Amino acid sequence: MADLLAALGADLDDEGVRDTPRRVASAYAELLTAPPVNLTTFPNDEGYDELVVARAIPFHSLCQHHLLPFVGTAHVGYLPGDRILGLSKLAWVVEKFARGLQVQERLTQQVANWLQDQLAPKGVGVVIEAEHLCMSLRGVQASGARTITSAVHGLLRDDGRSRAEFFALAGVHR
């Protein structure tokens, strides 16, 4: 970071810049480290068999290509099988995978795959909407443009009515 600042013409002896390399390293460590959480599942003793959807889960991540943030919301749902997940844990799954150098497509798939693998539900759906600062602040400078990605498994992929219901509950019109 000190080399980058020097290359940009910053005076590394300036009191306001002197500790910047440490602060930047600390900031990136914070942005790239997910807090630990135990993402345990529970038996679906009630036999609940309708969609569970958490909408507008806020997240931020770092673009692996430019180290600039992308910020948005995730809509995550599943059709329970034999196991369920505590509702707050849906947000933790997003956080778990968002905290790393990422691309939105992979983030979307990782969340969906984790839910599929850990819960073995009848279906999983994930929609992520985000603004990428690497696109807003540089290059094309398309401020406000949002990218939408989705991943669906099981009945949410194969059954048209279940798929449509998930996207409607997630607030995505396809």
Describe this protein's structure:
The chain is of the alpha+beta class and 174 residues long. The protein folds into two domains: 31 residues, no CATH class; 128 residues, GTP cyclohydrolase I, C-terminal domain/NADPH-dependent 7-cyano-7-deazaguanine reductase, N-terminal domain (GTP Cyclohydrolase I, domain 2, 2-Layer Sandwich), CATH 3.30.1130. The chain is built from seven helices and seven strands; from the N terminus they run H-H-E-E-E-E-H-E-H-E-H-E-H-H. A five-stranded mixed beta sheet has the order 5-2-3-6-7, sandwiched between helices. The protein has a two-stranded antiparallel sheet with strand order 1-4. Helix 3 crosses helix 4. The chain starts with a helix and ends in a 5-residue tail after the last helix.
SSE order and pairing:
Layout: H1 2-7, H2 20-31, E1 41-43, E2 52-63, E3 69-79, E4 83-85, H3 87-98, E5 101-102, H4 104-119, E6 123-132, H5 133-136, E7 147-154, H6 155-158, H7 160-169
Parallel strand pairs: 2-5
Antiparallel strand pairs: 1-4, 2-3, 3-6, 6-7
Helix pairs in contact: 3-4
CATH class of the largest domain: Alpha Beta
Strand order of the largest sheet: 5-2-3-6-7
- Write the CATH architecture name of the largest domain: 2-Layer Sandwich
Poorly predicted regions are: none
CATH superfamily of the largest domain: GTP cyclohydrolase I, C-terminal domain/NADPH-dependent 7-cyano-7-deazaguanine reductase, N-terminal domain
* Biggest sheet overview: 5 strands, mixed
Number of domains in the coordinates?
A: 2
Our Rg estimate from Cα atoms comes to: 19 Å
Q: Strand share of the residues?
A: 25-35%
Oligomer: single chain
Helix proportion: 25-40%
The termini sit apart by 44 Å
Please count the helical segments. Answer: 7
